[in-house]
Each structure stands twice: as C-alpha cells, then as structure tokens.
Amino acid sequence: MKQQADIVRVVGEYVQLKKAGQNFRGLCPFHSEKTPSFNVHPVRQIFHCFGCGKGGDVFDFVMEMERCEFPEALRIVAEKCGITLPRPKERSPEERKEKQQRTVLVEMHREAQTFFLKQLEGTLEGKAARAYLEDRGLDPNTTKTCWLNPGWSRATRAGGSSTGSGGELHSPLQTNREKSWRSELARWAMTCRNT
After folding, report:
1. pTM of the complete model
2. What distances in angstroms separate CA 41 from CA 8, 19, 38, 57, 113, one per listed residue?
3. What is the tens place of the pLDDT at every residue in 40-61?
C-alpha cells in the first residue's frame, strides 16, 4: 500500500507544491511561514519541513492533517489514490473466543494493577513496600506507570498463551506461597526496571 500511494498526489491536495529539482516544495501546513521549507521526496515517499522539523511518510502526513489514527489515515490514502483495501478476514468461532478471553484477561490485569497501586499508595503495608522499592532504586513515577508484570500483559495482548500445561492461569495475581512478599516485590520491581 505504501509503495502504491503517491505522496505527491496526496500532499498536493493539502499543499500547493512546486517542482524543485527531484523534489517538490511548498509552504508548510504545520506552521506559519513565508518562504517554503516544506519538501516532498517522491522517490523516498517522505515529507520533511526544515522550518518546524515535522516529517514522515504519507500516513504520518494524513494523520497530522486529518487528526486521525492510522486505520483512518490508511482508508483516506487508499481512497485518494484509488487503491482497494482488502476486507478484514472473517474470524472463526475459536478466534473470536480467544480474542474475548484475551480481552477479559487484560481487563482483569488492569483491575489488579489499579488495586495493587491503591494498596501501594494508601496502606501501611504499601508505605513499607514503597520504601523497599525506593531502596532498590525504583523511582515512584515508574511504580505508578509500570504494569505489574509487563511480560504477562504483552504476551496476552500479542496472542500468546497465558495458561500453563495444566490450564492454570499465570498472572501477577498468583503468588508462590514459599516466597515472601518481599521477594515477589523485588521480582516485580526488577521486571519494571528492565522495561
């Protein structure tokens, strides 16, 4: 799709472009200027403004101009260039069920994250845990923004299995009874630090 989309044609619908050597030049639509510093490179299929520094491909340009997300920009570019987009593949019942399970697991994970962060911020035990995390070199902002177990959430979102061979759920909600809460917290802290 990107190779088929003509960036000069698409950008030309928004900006008056003039040929300048191999490239095209015009006034930047992203900032006010009197001398053209906005360049479109048809061979490389990119744009760049030397005035404000914005640049990218045809999709970046449309996303910025239309204030839309990538799927909408893809549709707009296809429409402008006369490219037919393939229809999404129909999902099998198994695929729909897996997607639904994945969505439920991710939502459970978010709820657990919210619960544990509230515990971390609003309880006496949380105060001790915060002190422990700070002693380990983990800054408080990281604690607030880090997933409880990034590997689990990424595997789940990417479609990886979140169950073991016995079908049990492996999530940050499970704890190993032999380990103390400090070692679990340290493992979590190191996971967050490495992301």
Report:
1. 0.48
2. 8, 10, 10, 10, 46
3. 999 999 999 999 999 999 999 9
